[in-house]
Specification:
Strand content: 15-25%
CATH superfamily: Alpha/Beta hydrolase fold, catalytic domain
Oligomer: single chain
Number of domains: 1
């Protein structure tokens, strides 16, 4: 079920004033009442990890009825932040206001939204093997969260999503472990059709080279890059039953719309149902805030079925 339309962008959340002002304005437009007391809440804690050898911070958005319906179990959406952001993306950016409004308007069902802190890991095991973030997610984080909160059992109660680097991570882990997830949604995912030239050693791109090098090798190892690429995984993974959504802006600052189009072609050639949108927009917070409801509604529809 392919529906190509216009464009989208990414959501690397930033605390820079201009972005905050923009998001506050968007949140105000979505709010039903400026003085309504929130019925949902956010809880930020940490989970110990033997694999990473340190606790990992996370925040969880708890739906309105979570505290009052003590025996009810809920689906859970693991939502991955972008590069430069952290586990508090729903706290400092204003996305929480958008989620609250969707609940108040009954435009999505109730489920938990959990965001772990991931640094610049791209949510995979690093090339060096020193940072096994994917192993942490699968072996420690998912079981730990689902033991700590009232979450329904099994893949039918579990979705994964993300933006930018987090969109890459969401597609990667869903395609690598489709038995764990009912649905995956990615906004402005960091999909690159080839290893970027900026990742090579150079003085001009030193910072970016270091960021990518920590995860993919410096210079990036082509075989490792290919093994972890969501596009490469999409060519061979058994994706029957996995609900797939992704979008990107047609003027993405990093050219990620080309990666989104390439992923669309791969899934279409395999006749794998998916929903894809190329919307007008860049790779910024405004784009993310505008289209976050669509991503959450996609997950909500999957849980409802």
């Amino acid at each position: 079920m392919r529906c190509a339309t216009s464009k989208l962008d990414e959501m690397q959340i930033s605390t820079r004033p201009a972005m905050l002002v923009g998001l506050v304005a968007i949140s105000f437009l979505f709010a039903t009442s400026a003085f309504a007391a929130p019925t949902a809440r956010i809880e930020c804690k940490s989970l110990p990890s033997k694999i990473l050898a340190h606790p990992v911070a996370y925040c969880v958005v708890l739906p309105p009825s979570y505290d009052s319906q003590k025996t009810r179990k809920y689906p859970v959406l693991y939502f991955f932040h972008g590069l430069g952001d952290n586990e508090q993306m729903f706290v400092h950016g204003g996305a929480f206001n958008l989620v609250e409004d969707l609940w108040e308007r009954k435009q999505i069902g109730e489920f938990l939204i959990v965001t772990p802190e991931a640094g610049a890991t791209f949510y995979i095991n690093s090339y060096s093997g020193r940072v096994r973030y994917e192993d942490f997610l699968v072996l420690e984080f998912l079981p730990g969260i689902e033991a700590r909160y009232r979450v329904g059992a099994g893949r039918l109660n579990r979705g994964v999503g993300g933006v930018s680097m987090g969109g890459y991570g969401a597609l990667h882990i869903a395609f690598r472990h489709p038995e764990f997830f009912l649905a995956v949604s990615a906004q402005s995912p960091a999909l690159m059709t080839e290893i970027p030239a900026m990742a090579a050693r150079s003085a001009a791109n030193g910072m970016r080279s270091r960021v990518l090098g920590e995860t993919f090798g410096s210079p990036p190892d082509p075989a490792f890059w290919e093994r972890n690429s969501p596009m490469a995984l999409a060519r061979r993974a058994k994706l029957a039953g996995l609900r797939i959504y992704f979008d990107c802006g047609d003027q993405d600052d990093y050219g990620f719309e080309e990666g989104a189009k390439a992923l669309d072609r791969i899934l279409t050639s395999r006749k794998i149902p998916h929903e894809v949108h190329i919307y007008p927009g860049r790779h910024d917070w405004q784009y993310f805030a505008e289209h976050l409801p669509e991503s959450l509604q996609f997950q909500s529809r999957a849980f409802a079925k």
